[in-house]
Write a structure and sequence with these properties.
The chain is mainly alpha-helical. The protein has helices spanning 3-9, 28-48, 55-81, 87-110, 116-136, 146-163, 169-220.
Length: 221
């Protein structure tokens, strides 16, 4: 309907300010997510070139990892701010996040640079949070808190420092950064578990209350 005919009809309503547009697949947010996914095999290949201990190749691997982390900071924000949220982005973005971090951790452990228990703790936490979100999704959504964002940042810095071939004080510093990342990983994981249990209890209580009111109405009919 043209603008003139809409005015003549006297009733064309403006679209609600919160309405979601129809963003296409090829938008900047999704392209950044695709770049992050494409960097995963590149990161793995760079980690093992030259036996896995060549400083130059490890620096390139660090560059790939850093680019992936930077795209992670921007793609979701761009999608929300410019109404570019798509079904592809909702699925691919978290997959890309976990894939790049998981690949880096596993590579470091395979090369003997990072203890396997650190990799297992971090990956188990990420998998556990994902499963918990599905477990309580019928009752609500668990939002990402500041602790989770700090955990992600600390993990990124720590893993990035382990990818580089460092010696001396920097090698000692990265140990402490990774230790902080592990502590935050466990602490935020436990907090998410607390939130999930509280959300589930509240949801179940609401369902029982609703069932009780429905039963009372039926009894009074």
């Amino acid at each position: 309907m043209s603008g003139a005919s809409a005015a003549a009809g006297g009733g064309a309503r403006p679209a609600p300010s919160g309405a979601t547009g129809t963003a296409g697949l090829w938008n900047i947010a999704n392209i950044l997510t695709m770049i992050r996914l494409a960097l995963v095999p590149g990161l793995v290949a760079l980690m093992f070139v030259g036996g896995g201990d060549d400083p130059a190749w490890r620096a390139l691997a660090w560059a790939a990892f850093t680019i992936a982390m930077i795209t992670d900071l921007f793609d979701g924000e761009l999608a929300r701010r410019h109404d570019l949220v798509t079904d592809f982005g909702k699925i691919a973005d978290p997959i890309a996040d976990k894939a790049i971090m998981g690949a880096a951790l596993v590579c470091l452990s395979v090369l003997g640079d990072l203890p396997w228990w650190v990799t297992v703790v971090i990956l188990a936490r990420e998998l556990g949070i994902t499963l918990m979100r599905f477990w309580v999704i019928r009752y609500g959504v668990m939002p990402a808190g500041r602790g989770g964002k700090l955990k992600t940042l600390t993990q990124g810095v720590g893993v990035g420092m382990y990818i580089l071939v460092l010696t001396g004080p920097l090698a000692t510093l990265r140990w402490w950064v990774m230790a902080a990342a592990v502590v935050l990983t466990v602490a935020t994981g436990l907090d998410y578990l607390r939130q999930a249990l509280a959300l589930r209890r509240a949801g179940r209580a609401g369902q029982k209350s609703g069932d009780g009111r429905a039963g009372a109405r039926r009894d009074g009919e």
